[in-house]
Queue: 3 jobs
Job 1
Amino acid sequence: MSGNREKKKLLIIEDDLGLQKQLRWNFDNYEVSAASDRESALTKVRRHEPAVITMDLGLPPDPDGASEGLATLQQILAMAPDTKIIVLTGNQNHANALKAIEMGAYDFHQKPFDPEMLKLVVERAFYLHTIQQENRRLSLTQSNSPIEGLITRDPELLKACRNIEKMASSDVTVMLLGESGTGKEVLARALHTLSARKDNRFIAINCAAIPESLLESELFGYEKGAFTGASKQTLGKIELADSGTFFLDEVGDLPFQLQAKLLRFLQERVIERIGGREEVPVDVRIVCATHQDLTKLMEEGRFREDLYYRLSEIVITIPPLRDRVGDALLLAHHFKNKFCAKERKATLNFSQEALAAIEKHQWIGNVREVENCVRRAVIMAEDSSITAQDLGLKTTDSSVEPLNLKTIREQEECRALVKALARADGNVAQAAKLLGVSRPTIYDLMSRCGLR
């Protein structure tokens, strides 16, 4: 029995029982199941999740055509898109075989089939399926994103990273939206590093960190004698970034009167230093970021609408850490290892209670909060285990959620059963078909889940 479970799963969809038997015999080294119509085929796919399927397009009620077979193919691929489907077809059905390939079938083989050749095709399909699954597994276990310095496995943030890679080579102005501490500057630097400007300067300025009276001279520079204390010509940050990238952080805090001057630069690509009359051309790529709702600021008359549209040629939204599945723990482990090495401490580990507290915490300060929290814990830990108290995180009994696969599976099975019974209006046989299991299995599940 255990040997059978280790065999690769192959499904044969064939309404000719004689041919079905012949195919079963030909593939006796696989765990073979068979179906003769669309309904039974879909049930077998749900129940066995075969990696490879051979199928005849001529299925009842259209055994001489291909409509039923193509419809079955479409439904299987919608349900299990990674499945490799090999279509068996006669000489006269070549056009339908090509149509099946267009719809997503892996390959086709002509009837009457050559046993050895079909074996090779099936074997290759299994091999390709295994390779693709392994690549997917490796990508899931890869802790680092394509962007250097950004650690994530979150699909939304990985999508943002891929978009950064795509637009890095252009000079389009990019706006990064996200809460403080989510990694906006890391993505801005990535845009620079991946661009043709990488050998020139990346200059960043935080509009919220510089007093309003000094911000104009920081941005645009000034001439000697422009004001009291201006003893020499000083270049502004925009001019210093010439031929490189200029990162305008917290642009939502840019004073209203400076917004017009920045807009003129974006339109004309020239600046005027304070106290100067000469226009200085500057070739620079602009990236900006903010945690504020600029739409709301525009409605309140605190941010220029024309400037917003100049700055937001492409907008990338960075999700907060609380919405990134698994990233809090990933970052906690990363910072723990980093600070253990920096503080020259023996390797520390998080207690189960600490891990549960990290998962439950909302991390309002995002990545920056995790970094500070873990650094403090590494310094304060008294033994080889970092506790929730070391992290400064509150924990309760309800927050210590054991990651037990059996418990999770049982909970999900009960949820699926309730949904299926609701969809089938309480009909057990119909619910069994929807879930791809037998009626006795449904009754067992109902008993286990406390359903009558």
Job 2
Amino acid sequence: MLPGTRRALLHRIAVGQTEGRAPSLVGAVVRDGRLVWFGSRSMIEGHAPDTDTQYRIGSITKTFVAVLVMRLRDEGRLELTDPVGRHLPDAGPAAGLTVGQLLAHTSGLAAETPGPWWERTPGELRPELADVLGDAPAKHPAGSRHHYSNPGYALLGALVERLRGMPWGEALRAEVLEPLGMTRTTLLPQQPAAGGFAVHPWADVMVPEAVQETGRMAPAGQLWSTAADLARWAAFLAAGDDRVLGTETVAAMRAPAAPADATDPDGGYGLGVQLTRRGDRMLAGHTGSMPGFLAALWVSVPDGVGALVLANCTSGPRVGAIAADLLTITADAEPALPAPWRPAGALDPALLDLAGPWYWGTNAFGLRVRASGELDLAPLSGNGRGSRFHVEPDGTWTGLEGYYAGETLRVVRRPDGSVSHLDLGSFVFTRQPYDPQAPVPGGFPGWH
């Protein structure tokens, strides 16, 4: 990393620690899957934390729980459309909510548990799921809006336990943490670990915060981790890892699954993954807070860059913004070099027959065949909708983005085998505008 970039990153966390009045604050940058920069600031000279110092990461825990659920999905043990009660008999009034709604916070469940405040009281006060949900947990109709719900993730943790036959933390360690080498991510703190503090809002004094084991609510925010381990997690959220979840499943987790809240139009939520827009970049990750601690982690997949920030105070530094700034500083100062263009080794001649101009009515589109075998369809005039398409085993193509995401593209051939037209979700694309030899609804005689 260039010296100027390193200086800018250090300056950002130094300002964040000072202005946020944090006892300590650490920041890290991940590029192309590995930790490339780490910096820390502390109130005690000469005792700044290092990459192995644990902090509580709060709701970043939810990303780990979501991965466990998606593993069950990929194994065929459940579907995201399943009512959670199908797998979790003690789900009570939440039994009809779907797994996907719980992951995306669109279930309509309450944001918090019935009193007392779960983050600051022992988990033994809520031994059963009924204690987490209360008598009337629904605050909104299911599926109607994004409404963040911590109890919803308690349900997901219980779901994992039910289907795996073991505590969710044990499943996490065996299925996720050990394969990824995240040995310093734990349910309870293990030294060296930062102590959590509450800093007085109107005076430069502070007091220690108590650490509670949250029991049933642990899947919502229990985990502790380090900068080194979270760098591995950032790399995983950006690219996946076949030992845990494949690239396509992780990409599905990062895709928007819930609308942005009206108060945060640049936000959004995937499947256990928080989304935020910074300029032209869509970042994916999560923020977290628990008494005494703040955390944030973001990745930008197109840039190949991720960043994280950890602090040991209940409030103060805007860790989400600081982490986003670290990512932006790196991506803007040292943009990734594109992969070299290389020709395809071999392409099916039938694919080459599809390349070139096509017309939707009078609107011209270009279809390009990539070396990967994917198709790119894009308007030549700048007006219209385009998409990339991935081939399916039956010879059709599925849209990967935008308006045509999930839609089917078919090549329609004449009896002699020549290409008549493309059918994209019933839209007809022809080689000539209103081709008289193709069935174009709305065409008219005499065009040619």
Job 3
Amino acid sequence: MLKTEDLWATIIGLLALLGVWMAWQAGSPLAQMVALNTAGLHWQTWGTLLAFFDHQWDAILLQPIVFSLFLALPVIFLNLDLERFLMGFLVLFLLGLVTFSISGWAQSARFELEPPVVALLLSLAIGNLVTIPDWMKPALRVELYLKTGIVLLGATFPLSLLLSAGPAALMQAAIGTILTVGAIYGLGRGLGLTHGQAAVLGTGAGVCGVSAAMAAGSAVEARRQDIYQAISLVILFSLAWVMVLPQLAVLFGLTPGQGGAWIGTSELADAAGMAAASSFGAMVGHANVVIKAFTLTKVIGRDVWIGLWAIFWTFTTTQHRTPGATPSSPDSTNAHAWWRRVPKFVIGFLLAAGVMSLLTLRLTPALRHDLLVPLVGLRTWAFTLCFLAIGLNTRFRQLFAVERRVVLVFSAGVAFNLAVGYVLSTIVFGSQWAALH
């Protein structure tokens, strides 16, 4: 378990929470310095931006040092080259500063250039125009940054909201994932896809993107090319939905809660969903509500189905052996395998929410806000690093090398999921999401 990014993301997130709490208790500005970014600067001239960097030079020098200290231990346990990781991470950090500077421009809101969108566009352009050197690749740890950000998100998430809105989110996610996975699997089998192909495509679209596709691929003993095709389609549609879903949510006149829930039920990946939710939140002016609804439906609702579907496919695969597939491990059906596939970062999210709710139980709103500001800043950094790593890892020419029949099945399933998510978010549970604040 110590060789999984999932567990280390949980550990890093909880350690960051503890560090912020200790700094706040001691009255130290260290947490604010480490979490600093220029996204909210609203600068209009280069002089204003340069003056900010000149004034905050000590914090900017401190940030990569602290981030590297937190990441060094996971890097060692993950058997990555520490020196190459630190070199690559420094470049990634500098790209993060560029991202925040662009999104902090006074006119960025006019063009909807939120940090996630800027990070994706900037890194996609670099990744497809420039050859990424090998020494930088160890630092492009998408899952580590993403899941750390989600754990930090839990620290800013009220536990009372989980208890009040959680049941509706779980029910919506269950309905959505069962219908979508079932529809894609049925259509795929009807069009001649193998059991493994249909299962991987359905789970990738209906649950949690790349992680779900890989977990399902292992469970059904899918061929490597089947998993790669599913991952390519997940990435392609996830990136497209970052731009499309916020616009559609505005066009359909959805409330912040309904829009966030729809994005959470429809987006294929956590990182892309967070970017889409942030973009929609900026459009409607209620980013916190959108993020809450998205988190409830996607992170709390859909992500927990990774382990459930993996176990389901494991038990059904014995009747559908794929020629040339690698047999599953001997313990693939026992409790240890199930625990291995359970997303630990979701547990970390719940732990962070519970711990922070207890720590802030007797605090005034103003004091609670002061404590949470650095955690929000660190969360923003984690997600920005994740989006930068996604773009630098993505090659468009590889995404389009997918079998047409597979594209047809996946596209139809994604469209179906979009419709199901809309009905669930606006009609079935529409009143609950509209009342979210």
